[in-house]
Task: structure prediction
Amino acid sequence: MTELIWVNGKVTKLSEATANYEDRGHQFADGVYEVVRVYKGRGGSGGGVPFTLTEHLERLMRSADGIRLDVPYRVDEIAGEVRKLIDTSGLQEGMVYMQLTRGIAPRNHLFPKKPVPTLYFFTRELPPVPAPGTAEGVKLVTVEDERWKRCWVKSIALLANVLAKNEAAEKGADEAVFSEGGTVTECSASNLFAVGRGVLVTAPVGPKVLPGITRQVLLEVAAEQGIPVIERNPTEYECRCGEELFITSTTRELSWVSHWNGVQIHDRPGEITLRLHRAFQERVRREVGAYQTAMV
Amino acid sequence: MTELIWVNGKVTKLSEATANYEDRGHQFADGVYEVVRVYKGRGGSGGGVPFTLTEHLERLMRSADGIRLDVPYRVDEIAGEVRKLIDTSGLQEGMVYMQLTRGIAPRNHLFPKKPVPTLYFFTRELPPVPAPGTAEGVKLVTVEDERWKRCWVKSIALLANVLAKNEAAEKGADEAVFSEGGTVTECSASNLFAVGRGVLVTAPVGPKVLPGITRQVLLEVAAEQGIPVIERNPTEYECRCGEELFITSTTRELSWVSHWNGVQIHDRPGEITLRLHRAFQERVRREVGAYQTAMV
Result:
C-alpha cells in the first residue's frame, strides 16, 4: 500500500513529499491536527470509509479558531478531498493524519500578515481494531500534568504529551493518566472512563480535557444503551477501585484497563465496557454501511 | 546575502532545503532550539562573530536533556560547524537559528527506538542593534500564563508564546508579560528586569522562566558594575511604578519599556538601563574582538 499525501491540493507519495523548515508548524508548533480512523467497508471499488469524518473536521475548525487561524477550506471541501485520497490510495483499514498550520513565513512569533496555511493529510494502514474483549488490558500510570491550559485545542504542541507517554512506557505501562489533587482528567492520547454502580464517570471537556470524538460517540452510545453518565473528574480511588475502567481513542476505540500504577486492578474487560464497545462497533458498521449505500 | 542551512552535516541554500512532514519537530513539537546573535567584527575575511555561542549550545544540550534527547554531537563540534556556515555565507550582522528534533519516524507518541535526531541551523541577516537609548520604548501588556510547566526547556512547542505575543500585538503592544497573582515571570520571547532603588529585580529561572543567555550575561555585567540583583518575581506594581523597566533578548539585547497595559510609564530609557546596555555592548565588542584576534 503506497501512502499518499495531499498538501494544499497536490497529491504525491508521502515518501517523496517535502516540507519546509520555516513552516510555522515546524518552528512554533503553530498548528492543529486530527487523526481519522478508516474502516474497511463491504469491499467493492475504492478505499475504506473514514468514520466520523465530519465531526473530526468540525473539531479541526474549532481548534483552528482556538489558535486564531482562518481555514481557507470548508468542511465539506476537505471531506471530499480526504475521501478521494483514501480511494486513490486504496486504503481499507487505517487512518488519515491531518495537519493544519499557519504556513511558511520567515521566523517571527507574530502571525504573518497574509498567512497561507499549510493543510496536509496522508493515508496509513493500521491493523483492524480487535473485537471487543479480545485485546490485552491497558496498563496505566498517573503522571503530573505539565501541559498548557488549552488542551481542548488539538494542537501539534504535543511535547508534554510525548514526555508523559514515554514516562509511562519507562514504568512498564502503556499510557499516562494526568492526575492532580487526587482526581484525573484524561490520558496522554486518550480519554478515560470509570464505571461505578453502573454509571460512567468521565472528565468534562475543558482546559485540560480534549473533546475526544470517540468520547463523544461513546456518550451517545451510552445514552442509547440507557447507561447514565456523569461528567466530572474521576477520583484516583474510583479508577483504582471502581468496577471497570477503560480509555477511548480514535485508532483503538475502547480499551479496557488492567493495571493502575503497576498494580493489576482487573483481569478481564468489564460487562459495561464490553457492551459499550459492541454497541460502538455496531454504530461504526451502520455508518460505514450507510455511507457505502449512499455512494452506490 | 544567501541564507544557508546546515542539516545533519549537509549545507544547502535555505530556499532549497526540504524538511519532512514526519519529522517529530513537525508533528509533536518534539525538539528544542536556539537563536544566536551574530555581530560584525572588524572586517576582514569570512563572516561575523556569533556571541556567546558556547553558552547557547550548552543550553541546547540542557534543553535536549530536559526532553530526554541524546545529542549526537559535542558542543565544540556544533560550534565549529556554525562558525564555518557563518563564514561560508558571509553573514556579518544577523542571527543563526538552530533546531534539534528527535528526527524522522512514523508518527507515534513513543520515542523511536533508534532516533536519528535532526539538527539544523541557518543564517539570517538582521539590522544591527541600535545604540543604547536610541530605539523606541517597548510597550508591554500582561497576559495570562497558559504555557506548560517546563519553560526552562527552550522547546519548539511555542504555540502558547505565539498566542501571547499576538494578543499583545492586538492590544497595540510589542510584547506580552506573563502575570499571575500580582507578580510577573517573563515575556513571550524575552526576560524582564525591574529597577527600584538602584536594585535589579528579575524572576529566578524555573518552571515558568527560561534561563536567557542575555539575562545571564546581564547578571554578570550588573555584578561588574556593582549593581545589586535580587532574583524573585517582580510584582506588577514594581513594573508599573518602579524607576526603570527593561527586557532582554538575544536579538535585541536590552530594550527599555515605555508602556505598561496601555499606560505610558516612562518617556526615556533610565540611567541604569543605559549604563547596563553600554556595558553589555562593551562586553560584546570585547568578545568579538578577542575571537577575531584568536583567529588571526
